[in-house]
Amino acid sequence: MFKKFLKKYWLIFVFALIINIPIVIMGTIRTNKDITIKGDCQNINGFIDIESDYNESGSFSSIYVVDFEKSTILQNLICSNIKEADITDLNLNVNNLNDFERYEAGQIQKNSSISKAIIVAYEKAKINNDNIYIDYEFKGLKVTYYSKKSALRISDLIIKVNDTGLDVGSISFKKKLIDELYDNDNLDSFTILRNGSLITYNEEEIDYYNFNAYEIFDINYETITPSLSLKSTNVGGPSGGLLQTLSIYNRLTSFDYTNDLKIAGTGTINLSGNVGEIGGIKQKIYTAYDDNIDVFLCPASNYDEALIAYNNLKNKEKMALVKISNFTDAINYLEGLND
């Protein structure tokens, strides 16, 4: 039966193979390219819940983009015809990380970002409210990137340099700022915690100037007031820090900073409230516009690039683009909307 069917329709089978085999090949061969396309807005109330009596008339949303590292030939071909997409050469320094390690690194960055957002928001809000309380401890720096020759691994927790504990007040996620604490000619040892065991490496073993790590905090969720709980999310990275901080702060104060508007944006946050640069700003502008966002808060360091994408919008007047350098800038702007 099959032989008769094949004999009758063999030309169709051959034609189908001629068409589909190249598509399969192009869809499986990966390149040293990185593709960034539009993502979506994520209401922060959906994954950070606070037991508070204060309600929001509008919303705060972070924005994520979709990234294809080592994209396939077919993906490159398709996305080359999408004006909102960017195709760039892959940073070869990350080629030693597999897909799972990149995902794990993104989750570390996200968790560090959320912790800093909680700390900044509660510390700012408790200035005018004695009932707000937060207790936290800095644990160290968790590795999110290591070079091929490094002995480090993703999730290693750096807890000491030269047998001295790290001080969160003097460092940031950029590990090179450890130089502010120590003479970099005298970096003898780094103590890390890996799977419950302490390991010590020297500067050369970890390839000191070629790794990244993010701050890790232990927040006491049993005593934090008002109580706060987190829901899991697969979105990774640190770029939601500013909007996460604003959303939490807004639910700790009587003034509603949303002003009945859909507010979104991007930018990292540190414990001083400074807003840092992020990637994929063009795609985030387009994503916010398509989601009918009213106000887009943009890091000052990304503003010039964001403005180019913003000026290409068909009806840019419907979404305000606001340059933000720190948490106070954002609060002052949002307060002014109520005047």
Structure, described:
By secondary structure, this protein is an alpha+beta fold. The protein has helices at residues 2-28, 73-79, 99-125, 203-206, 241-250, 281-290, 303-311, 327-336, and strands spanning 33-43, 48-50, 59-69, 86-89, 136-145, 157-161, 164-165, 190-194, 197-201, 212-219, 228-230, 262-265, 268-269, 275-276, 295-299, 320-324. It has a six-stranded mixed sheet with strand order 4-1-3-12-15-16, with helices on both faces. Strands 5, 6, 7, 8, 9 and 10 form a six-stranded antiparallel sheet that branches. The chain is globular and about 80 Å long. The model is unreliable at 170-174 (pLDDT under 50).
Short summary of the structure?
This protein is of the alpha+beta class and 339 residues long. It is 31% helix and 25% strand.
Residue runs with pLDDT of under 50 for 5 or more positions: 170-174
Major sheet: arrangement of strands: 4-1-3-12-15-16
What value does the Rg take, in angstroms? 24 Å
Specify the helix fraction band. Answer: 25-40%
Q: Helices and strands, in N-to-C order?
A: HEEEHEHEEEEEHEEHEEEHEHEH
Structural class: alpha+beta
Number of helices: 8
Terminus-to-terminus distance: 80 Å
Number of E-state strands: 16
**How confident overall, as mean pLDDT?**
85
Which features characterize this protein?
6-stranded antiparallel sheet, 6-stranded mixed sheet, alpha+beta, 8 helices, 339 residues
Task: Provide the fold topology.
Elements: H1 2-28, E1 33-43, E2 48-50, E3 59-69, H2 73-79, E4 86-89, H3 99-125, E5 136-145, E6 157-161, E7 164-165, E8 190-194, E9 197-201, H4 203-206, E10 212-219, E11 228-230, H5 241-250, E12 262-265, E13 268-269, E14 275-276, H6 281-290, E15 295-299, H7 303-311, E16 320-324, H8 327-336
Parallel strand pairs: 3-12, 12-15, 15-16
Antiparallel strand pairs: 1-3, 1-4, 2-11, 5-6, 5-10, 6-7, 6-8, 8-9, 13-14
Helix pairs in contact: 3-5, 6-7
